[in-house]
Each structure stands twice: as structure tokens, then as C-alpha cells.
Amino acid sequence: MNQAREWLGYWNDGYSAERQRVRIVLTADRLVLSDAGNGHAVTLLPLQGLSLAEEVYRGQPLRFRHAERGDARLSVEEHGLLDALRERQPGLGRRYLGRRGAGSRLLLWGGGAALLALGLLFGLPRLAGPLAQLVPVAWEDSLGRELVDQLAGGVRCEAPEGLQALAVLRRRLQGATPGPYRYRVQVVPGEMVNALAAPGGHILIYDGLLQAVEGPEELTAVLAHEMAHVTHRHGTQALIRQAGYSLLLTAMLGDASAAASVLTESGVMLLGLAHSRAAEAEADRAAIARLNAAGLDSRGLQRFFARLKAEGDELPDSLALLSSHPLHAERVEQAARLSRAGEAPLDGHQWRALKGICAP
């Protein structure tokens, strides 16, 4: 921190994956953010409503959210900003992870060590479910971001009106079911008809899927299904089963970057592997429950399944969705039984905008 009480950080507006390097100035009642390169104004964040997005650890960046800015996040490496903010808002948060948080970490270590011992006796794959529950959400978030970046590279579809429509879908689904995950949904170009969920709430939708679905209800159902895979940690379980003890140990240490280096390309490949029947059925149930809780039409999943089943051999080779999410008769029956009518997730204009999100 300098005499002008300025810091550097990164701003994400919550609508896209892009991070903007910003200069942060603390005034009496707000944070003023400007572009670190050209000095242009970016946004203002009133101190009223500002809070920490996660617990604070030594050596880790601060992450702030604001009550009026949805999924937007401000990341700052210099912890001096937190000290300065707490002079104005003493209740903003603990300086570093306190005794209670440290106790939780000890419990994590103790439980993880016990499960590791059991894993040596009975085999890690059988314990992937319990072990996945020990992995901190913040670690899943970092790992998921690394894997998605490897898979999609720097290419995203970001037509402004399409991003706005996608944000409407995400917010409606996010708010329907409480949980620790903050979902980041991105569309990438490509003819492949697929969607993938990485740990921590990072979801990729291929443009091929956007063009293949018939209406926003089908896409929303697929998105809710991917969110369910995140909530139930199916991807994290698969990574633990395949990557083994080295991945688990890095998770217990909270070192997501090390975990990403453990996984590299194999982790990306695992995202495309087929889920089990039980996992798919669980994700379907959770997806329909989320749609119903949001008051949305949940029959899109049933319609999508019925169409896939009817088209059979006529399906294109690019339909990778069925390789990673195999369709079974039980899934079709379950979707028909649990689905019900509700509101349309998007209006006609929003849906057309979303379909054109990859347009140049």
C-alpha cells in the first residue's frame, strides 16, 4: 500500500470469464476501480454491502463480493487493503483464518488421514465419495478453473446480449437451490453437442449443443443437470478415483496449482468420461428439483431425452453428450415422472440472443 492508499487487483464483472487488471483507490465510503493500463473508470463499490467472498489465508489473494453486484468479484494480492477496510468496517472479516477455521483444517487433515489409511486397506476408488466431501470448495474452484482453461483455451463466445441471457439462466438456477458453489457458465465455439462440468462450478457449453436443443427449456434442463454434477461432486470423485493419492494430498494441502500440474491433460480427458448410472440418475433428480424450485418448466429434460431416443442412429457423430452422459431407460422414465409445467426460462428475444452468442 502506498501513501495514496492504492492497490492493484483484478476485477471480474460476473458476466464473462475475463479478468480486468484494475487500480483500486479507497475513499471514505467506497472503492474506486479504474483500468490499470489506461486509467479509464471501471466501477465504484460502496463499502456498504462489501464483504469477503471466502476466508482469508496467508499467501492467498483476497476475494471480495458486493451485495448489489451479483457474481462480480474483486481479487487483490496485497492484504493491506483488508486492514484499511477494517478501519472503516471492523466486522468485515477475520484478518486470517482463526482458531475455528484452523480447527476445521485440522479436522480435514484428521479425517483425510483416516480415509487415506482406509484407502490403503480397501482401495481408493471405493472411498472416492467420502474423500470428495473433504475437498474444500475453494480448492475445487481453483482446480476447475485450471481444467476449463486447458480445455477451452482463451476462446469464449461473448456476444453481449447472449451473455446477458446466459446470466439470466444462471441466476435463476443458482438462486433456486442454496449451496456453496458459485457457478460460472461459459459458451465455447465448436460443433460438438456437449456440456461439461468441472469441479467448483465451472461449466462449459459448446455452441453445437446450443444449436441442437429445441428451445430454452431443453438447454436450461441440461445446465441444471451439469450444476447437479457439481453439487454432488461427481467430477471430483472421478478425479480422485483416477488421479489417486497425489491429487488427494494436494487437496488436503489446499494447493490447487499443484493439483492442476498433477492432472494436466489427463484431468481434461476425465471431464469427458462417462458418469455412472447412479450419478446420472442422481443428477437428473437434482436438476428437475432445481427447475421445479425455480418455478421453471422442468419438462425440457424429458423432451430432450425423448428426442434423443427417437432419433437413435440418426444422431450426429458430434453428439458427445451421450458418451459422457449415457442415456438409460430409467433416466427417461424418471424424467417423465418428476417433470412438471412451469415458466419459460427465457423469452423469445433472450433465446435468440443466446443462440447467437458465438456470432461474430
Describe the fold and architecture:
The protein is of the alpha+beta class and 360 residues long. The protein has two domains: 6-88, PH-domain like (Roll), CATH 2.30.29.30; 134-356, no CATH class. The protein is built from 15 helices and ten strands. It has helices spanning 80-88, 99-122, 128-134, 137-152, 160-176, 207-212, 216-231, 234-243, 245-253, 256-271, 277-293, 300-311, 321-324, 329-338, 348-355, and strands at residues 6-12, 20-26, 30-35, 41-46, 50-52, 62-66, 73-76, 184-188, 195-198, 202-206. The chain has a seven-stranded antiparallel sheet. A three-stranded mixed sheet has the order 8-10-9. Strand 6 (62-66) and strand 7 (73-76) form a beta hairpin. The radius of gyration is 21 Å and the shape is globular. The two termini are 42 Å apart. Residues 94-112 and 313-320 have low confidence and may be disordered.
Short overview:
This protein is an alpha+beta fold.
Secondary structure blueprint with pairings:
Layout: E1 6-12, E2 20-26, E3 30-35, E4 41-46, E5 50-52, E6 62-66, E7 73-76, H1 80-88, H2 99-122, H3 128-134, H4 137-152, H5 160-176, E8 184-188, E9 195-198, E10 202-206, H6 207-212, H7 216-231, H8 234-243, H9 245-253, H10 256-271, H11 277-293, H12 300-311, H13 321-324, H14 329-338, H15 348-355
Parallel strand pairs: 8-10
Antiparallel strand pairs: 1-2, 1-7, 2-3, 3-4, 5-6, 6-7, 9-10
Helix pairs in contact: 3-8, 4-10, 5-15, 7-11, 7-12, 8-10, 9-10, 11-14, 12-14
